[in-house]
C-alpha cells in the first residue's frame, strides 16, 4: 500500500503544482487513499521531496533530481534561440537556431510546465508532446508570452 501511495504521490506532483501537505492529502483522499496529514508528511520525508519556486511567488513539491529552470533563464533561452513553431493535434514543433534545440528542450523539460509530457530534440528542432490535446492552446499562449516579453 505504501509503495503504491508513493508512486501515486510522485505521479501527482508531476501533474499538479501541489504546494502544501494538506493539498496533497486532499488529492490523495479524492483518489481513494485513506491518509492523514501526518502520513503525507512522512511520505514527503521518505521520498525526499523538496519545494521549488515555480514563479509568481508560488512553489510546488518536486524531486530533488529535478533541476528547476528559472523563469528568467527560460525567457532568455526562448527569446534568444526560438525561430518559430507550429503544431498539429497534441504535437508541437519548435525550430531553434542551429545547435540550440537540446538546451532549449532541456530548459522546457525542467521548467515544470503543465501538460508537456516530454520533448525530443535534434540540432535545431524540438518535438513537444502535449497532453491533453485541449492544452495545446495554453502551452502556445505561455510560449508566446515568453517570446513577446
Task: Describe this protein's structure.
There is one protein chain. The protein is α+β, with helices and mostly antiparallel strands. Helices cover 46% and strands 24% of the residues. Strand 3 and strand 4 form a beta hairpin. The chain has two domains: 2-62, Winged helix-like DNA-binding domain superfamily/Winged helix DNA-binding domain (Arc Repressor Mutant, subunit A, Orthogonal Bundle), CATH 1.10.10; 71-148, Gyrase A, domain 2 (2-Layer Sandwich), CATH 3.30.1360. The protein has six helices and six strands, in the order H-H-H-E-E-H-E-E-H-E-E-H. The chain starts with a helix and ends with a helix. The strands form two sheets. It has a four-stranded antiparallel beta sheet with strand order 3-4-6-5. The chain has a two-stranded antiparallel ribbon with strand order 1-2. The radius of gyration is 17 Å and the shape is elongated.
Distance between the termini: 47 Å
- The share of residues in helices is 40-55%
User: What average pLDDT do the residues reach?
Assistant: 91
Q: Which structural class do the helices and strands define?
A: alpha+beta
Inertia-based shape:
elongated
CATH fold-level assignment of the largest domain:
Gyrase A, domain 2
* CATH architecture descriptor text of the largest domain: 2-Layer Sandwich
Strands of the biggest beta sheet: in what spatial order? 3-4-6-5
The CATH class assignment of the largest domain is Alpha Beta
How many structural domains does the protein architecture include? 2
Oligomerization status of the protein chains: single chain
Contiguous runs where pLDDT drops below 50 for at least 5 residues: none
What summary fits the major beta sheet? Answer: 4 strands, antiparallel
| Rg computed from alpha carbons, rounded to a whole number of angstroms | 17 Å
Instruction: Give the SSE order as H and E letters.
Output: HHHEEHEEHEEH
Number of helices: 6
Number of strands: 6
Please state roughly what percent of the residues sit in beta strands, choosing from under 5%, 5-15%, 15-25%, 25-35%, 35-45% or over 45%.
15-25%
Amino acid at each position: 500500500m505504501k509503495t503504491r501511495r508513493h508512486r501515486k504521490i510522485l505521479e501527482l506532483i508531476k501533474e499538479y503544482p501541489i504546494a502544501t501537505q494538506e493539498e496533497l492529502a486532499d488529492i490523495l483522499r479524492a483518489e481513494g487513499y485513506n491518509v492523514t496529514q501526518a502520513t503525507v508528511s512522512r511520505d514527503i520525508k521518505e521520498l525526499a521531496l523538496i519545494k521549488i519556486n515555480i514563479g509568481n511567488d508560488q512553489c510546488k513539491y518536486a524531486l530533488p533530481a529535478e533541476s528547476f529552470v528559472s523563469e528568467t533563464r527560460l525567457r532568455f533561452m526562448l527569446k534568444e534561440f526560438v525561430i518559430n513553431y507550429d503544431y498539429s493535434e497534441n504535437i508541437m514543433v519548435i525550430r531553434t537556431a542551429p545547435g540550440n534545440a537540446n538546451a532549449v528542450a532541456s530548459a522546457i523539460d525542467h521548467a515544470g510546465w503543465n501538460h508537456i509530457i516530454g520533448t525530443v530534440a535534434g540540432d535545431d528542432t524540438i518535438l513537444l508532446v502535449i497532453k491533453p490535446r485541449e492544452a495545446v492552446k495554453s502551452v502556445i499562449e505561455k510560449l508566446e508570452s515568453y517570446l513577446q516579453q
